[in-house]
Design brief:
Layout (H helix, E strand, L loop, with lengths): L1 H6 L3 H4 L5 H16 L8 E5 L15 E6 L2 H8 L5 E4 L12 E6 L9 H11 E12 L3 H6 L11 H8 L4 E8 L3 E8 L3
Parallel strand pairs: 1-2, 1-4, 2-3, 4-5
Antiparallel strand pairs: 5-7, 6-7
The chain binds S-adenosylmethionine.
The site of S-adenosylmethionine has 18 residues, from loops.
């Protein structure tokens, strides 16, 4: 978490300047479109890897929003947005009961995990049957490979590869969008 603690103070500023600002705008537009189809009224929502809480203002109508991240310093920035309850948590082992959320969101987290299968099972576990998961993952593109130079070892996927992984869980894609570096997907959890 040292890297994210280090980035916490500059994260929002960095994401607002060109070209990152342009990329963020594209991503937020796509996420907003996906969220428009998600039943959010009175929903209990969990945002995993919330960081500085950048997408929390896009989640409208939830009865309760819990924003979880492993970096305390990122959460300290999120606190300024005054949305939801903030919780320090590891996405690989979420301290929440199974099937306890109607909607789970996770934006910009998948690419930073080595064990994406475990992450997907954990997201599916905390989502109630019939519930929604909105998430992003990074595409296999030259630009993303260059991001590795910034100190990350990114897990990158084609849509086909990611669908194969998802199909090992009980999450199924309903809708997807693509932006410059990410795919944004809306999944529903099966009832079985
Ligand atoms: C690129 S930021 C995305 C933040 C935010 N979701 C957004 O859209 O701006 C990735 C976030 O994932 C968090 N993260 C990385 N590994 C994590 C883990 N194992 N458990 C929980 N959060 C983690 C980092 O602390 C960081 O805040």
């Amino acid at each position: 978490m040292k890297l994210w603690d280090f980035k916490a103070n500059i994260y929002d500023r960095m994401r607002s300047v060109f070209p990152f600002g342009f990329v963020r705008q594209q991503e937020h537009r796509n996420i907003t479109q996906l969220l428009a189809d998600v039943p959010l009224v009175n929903a209990r929502v969990l945002d995993v890897g919330t960081g500085t809480g950048d997408i929390l203002p896009l989640i409208k109508g939830g009865s309760e929003i819990i924003a979880a991240d492993a970096s305390f310093k990122m959460l300290r920035q999120a606190r300024k947005k005054q949305i939801g309850k903030l919780v320090v948590a590891d996405c690989m082992n979420l301290a929440f009961r199974s099937r306890s959320f109607d909607v789970v969101t996770t934006i910009g987290l998948v690419e930073y995990q080595n064990d994406v299968t475990t992450l997907l099972f954990e997201l599916a576990r905390v989502t109630r049957p019939g519930g929604a998961v909105v998430m992003t993952f990074s595409q296999k593109r030259m630009f993303n490979r260059l991001r590795n130079l910034l100190g990350h070892r990114l897990s990158l996927f084609s849509m086909d590869e990611f669908l194969k992984l998802l199909n090992t869980t009980n999450l199924r894609v309903k809708k997807s969008h693509r932006s410059f570096i990410q795919y944004q997907i809306y999944c529903r959890k099966l009832y079985v």
